[in-house]
Amino acid sequence: MRPNRPIYLDHHATTPLDPRVLACMRPWWEENFANPASVEHVMGRAVGEAVEEARAHVAELIGAGPMEIIFTSGATESNNIAIKGAARFAGTEGPRRVITLATEHKCVLESVKELANEGFEPVILPVRADGLIDLDLLREALATPTLLVSVMAAHNEIGVIQPLAEIGAMVKEAGAAFHVDAAQAAGRIPFDVEEIRADLVSLSGHKMYGPKGVGALYVRRRPRMRLAPLFSGGGQERGLRSGTLPAPLLIGMGEAARIAAAEGLLDSGRIAGQRDVFLDALSAQVPGLRVNGSREHRVSGNLNLTFPGGIDAQALMRAAPEVCVSSGSACSSASIEPSYVLRALGIPEDEARATLRVGLGRFTSPAEASRAAEILGAAWAQLITDRSQAAE
């Protein structure tokens, strides 16, 4: 750990680019920058072959076939294509009910809600106090014919891992399509599209130590999942995502997926150990510290922590600038309201405002984890002391 270097514990917002990924990408910017659609010449064909190799790596990570992977600009676009594309292709034929959870990513919730303007019926289910889906509520909701169910695999804020196999079986029995936002899950937990019976899966490059600006959407081929594209163009990516392919980014995501498939589960085990050491050290300094969300069903690097004593999370982060954490999802950082996810868990507003999200990752060292706990604990104690003295 270099002196004075900030300690980065915000891996749910983004991950650092793995040096191996950067090395894999560089030649496709500096040496062969051709358009992969330029199949008339040797440079274009070489780029095209590298893109297809990357597609195969992404597919292998989730147990899919290469032809089932559509490259996008990221998980937000993938989620939009999956939800709006499925609904618009179905049109007025069959069920028009779309089910999701109150704790889903904003882009999923907004996509589902927007479909109400097109005559679809959005159904937003509550979750249990631990953040997990209530399967009885889902079963009840599926008693009404349903077009699509969308559930996040591993939560970006509270880290809980939903029971995807059980959900998938229930959704298939009801005759609906199943979409999974796996941006925080792929490469961190065992994930196989066949085991969970998913029809659509969204992925993000920069959440798996790959580049920003690239993602992917798994679209099942058998039985075929049909989607309407969001915009028109040259017909790239099976006509679902037109536009010139950003080859270096796709190749980088492919390499990140290859590394995740080979090393991700080992990474997760090590990271979980460091997370527990961090939590034990911080809990010893902060009596009454609470972890939000299921402790058992949780992605390895995540901690969502409510600090006692009414200390505002923003004040705590200002008091500990050496530690890079967050008060919630980076995608909702423009909002000054307390986290809608925590409110959905029944956490009071004042406690939600006293909550931090901590995310350890592949390159977090034991020394950094220990030092971060020490800094945050000392900052919290100082804020408590300052407030007590001000009140005297």
TrEMBL record:
What this chain does, per the entry, is described as: Catalyzes the removal of elemental sulfur atoms from cysteine to produce alanine. Seems to participate in the biosynthesis of the nitrogenase metalloclusters by providing the inorganic sulfur required for the Fe-S core formation.
Which keywords has UniProt assigned to this entry?
A: 2Fe-2S, Aminotransferase, Iron, Iron-sulfur, Metal-binding, Pyridoxal phosphate, Transferase
Q: What reaction is this protein's catalytic activity?
A: (sulfur carrier)-H + L-cysteine = (sulfur carrier)-SH + L-alanine
- Keyword Iron-sulfur assigned to the entry: answer is yes
Q: What is its EC number?
A: 2.8.1.7
Q: Name one GO biological process term.
A: iron-sulfur cluster assembly
- Which superkingdom, per the lineage? Bacteria
Protein name (Swiss-Prot/TrEMBL): Cysteine desulfurase
Q: Which family does it belong to?
A: Belongs to the class-V pyridoxal-phosphate-dependent aminotransferase family. NifS/IscS subfamily.
| Needed cofactors | pyridoxal 5'-phosphate
Q: Which GO terms describe its molecular function?
A: 2 iron, 2 sulfur cluster binding; cysteine desulfurase activity; metal ion binding; transaminase activity
Q: Please give the InterPro entries that the UniProt record associates with this protein.
A: Aminotrans_V_dom, Cysteine_dSase, PyrdxlP-dep_Trfase, PyrdxlP-dep_Trfase_major, PyrdxlP-dep_Trfase_small
Q: Which residues belong to any copy of the Aminotransferase class V domain?
A: 7-368
Q: Gene Ontology cellular component?
A: cytosol
UniProt enzyme class = transferase
